[in-house]
């Protein structure tokens, strides 16, 4: 049966409710020194604030080796009254020490499948998606190897695959590898960060392939492209692709948290962006983007 795999167990897709489709309660990378999301109390408060704003589900895209806090996620979900989807997967190589890449790369598909079906380490928490990364416009050798492993894990489990696109680029190359070469259904692919490369023609091309398109809400990291968000969404809505659009906050630094940093944080998706989306596109569109579309994007016919 098609379900969404959360840290507290599998749910029917209709139980997700209002969803932040791409965010981070925990995240640690050498590329962001001093900005680690590693405080469980701060993560809990952020989740509670999101719930108080009407949020029901947080999809955390933090993959293997980047401090995803799997041991804390179930208690945060219970205490905040939200569903949390965790991720397996592997990021761009420069997020890791060289020895970690060398040790993990030969067994990526095996690792992904194990974390999706048996759980992450000894936590008992099962991942509910695979998060991997493309390259800048083209796929380097590392990206190709990780994407191929993700395709293998998808075929073994049914799990959806979320893609970090470097500066929003390369979505066409990712679809060529995953869908054309490796047979992953486009409806199991979520193309992330597309607002970081506000090329309407490219967005329309990849939407026509049937994948889900994920956009980030206002963020400190991508403030230069944030003003193009509504233009990008409008072009896709006008072309009939409203049913394939997702929105997330993508909070990757302590400074960007709303609860303990300078914001905007997870709640802003609902307190700031959602009212504007309703004024521009209507209530039905907002319901699709926050409820109906995530329910389809993160549901899978799980094997294992």
What are its keywords?
single chain, 304 residues, alpha/beta, TIM Barrel, 6-stranded parallel sheet, 3-stranded antiparallel sheet, 10 helices, 38% helix, 15% strand, globular
Annotate the secondary structure layout:
Blueprint (H helix, E strand, L loop, with lengths): L1 E5 L2 E3 L7 E5 L16 H13 L4 E4 L12 H8 L2 E3 L1 E4 L7 H7 L3 H10 L11 E5 L7 H17 L3 E4 L6 H11 L7 E3 L8 H9 L3 E5 L12 H10 L6 E4 L19 H14 L1 H15 L2 E2 L3
Parallel strand pairs: 3-4, 4-5, 6-7, 7-8, 8-9, 9-10, 10-11
Antiparallel strand pairs: 1-2, 1-12
Helix pairs in contact: 1-2, 4-5, 7-8, 9-10
Roughly how many Å is the radius of gyration?
17 Å
| Major sheet attributes | 6 strands, parallel
Given helix and strand content, the structural type is alpha/beta
For the termini, the CA-CA separation is 12 Å
Strand content: 15-25%
How many E-type strands?
A: 12
Low-confidence stretches: none
**Portion of residues in helices?**
25-40%
CATH architecture: Alpha-Beta Barrel
Just give the CATH class: Alpha Beta
- Overall mean confidence score, pLDDT: 94
Query: How many distinct folded domains?
Result: 1
Looking at the structure, the CATH topology is TIM Barrel
Number of distinct helices: 10
Supply the CATH superfamily name.
Metal-dependent hydrolases
Order of helices and strands: EEEHEHEEHHEHEHEHEHEHHE
């Amino acid at each position: 049966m098609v379900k969404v795999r959360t840290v507290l167990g599998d749910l029917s897709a209709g139980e997700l409710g209002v969803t932040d489709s791409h965010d981070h309660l925990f995240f640690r990378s050498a590329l962001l020194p001093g900005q680690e999301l590693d405080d469980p109390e701060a993560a809990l408060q952020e989740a509670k604030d999101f719930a108080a704003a009407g949020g029901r589900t947080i999809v955390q895209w933090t993959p293997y080796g980047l401090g995803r806090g799997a041991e804390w996620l179930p208690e945060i979900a219970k205490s905040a009254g939200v569903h949390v989807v965790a991720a397996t997967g592997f990021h761009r190589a420069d997020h890791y020490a060289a020895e970690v890449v060398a040790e993990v790369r030969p067994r990526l598909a095996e690792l992904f499948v194990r974390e999706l079906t048996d759980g992450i380490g000894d936590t008992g928490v099962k991942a509910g998606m695979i998060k991997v990364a493309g390259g800048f416009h083209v796929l380097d050798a590392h990206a190709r190897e990780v994407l191929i492993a993700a395709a293998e894990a998808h075929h073994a489990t049914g799990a959806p695959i979320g893609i970090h696109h470097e500066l929003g680029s390369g979505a066409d190359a990712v679809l060529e590898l995953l869908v054309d070469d490796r047979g992953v259904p486009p409806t199991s692919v979520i193309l992330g960060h597309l607002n970081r490369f506000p090329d309407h023609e490219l967005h329309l091309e990849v939407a026509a392939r049937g994948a889900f398109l994920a956009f980030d809400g206002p963020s400190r990291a991508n403030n230069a492209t944030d003003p193009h968000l509504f233009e990008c969404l409008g072009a896709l809505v006008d072309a009939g692709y409203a049913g394939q659009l997702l929105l997330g906050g993508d909070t990757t630094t302590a400074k960007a948290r709303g609860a303990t940093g300078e914001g905007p944080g997870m709640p802003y998706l609902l307190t700031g962006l959602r009212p504007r989306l309703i004024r521009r596109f209507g209530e039905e569109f907002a319901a699709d983007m926050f409820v109906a579309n995530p329910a389809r994007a993160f549901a899978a016919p799980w094997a294992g």
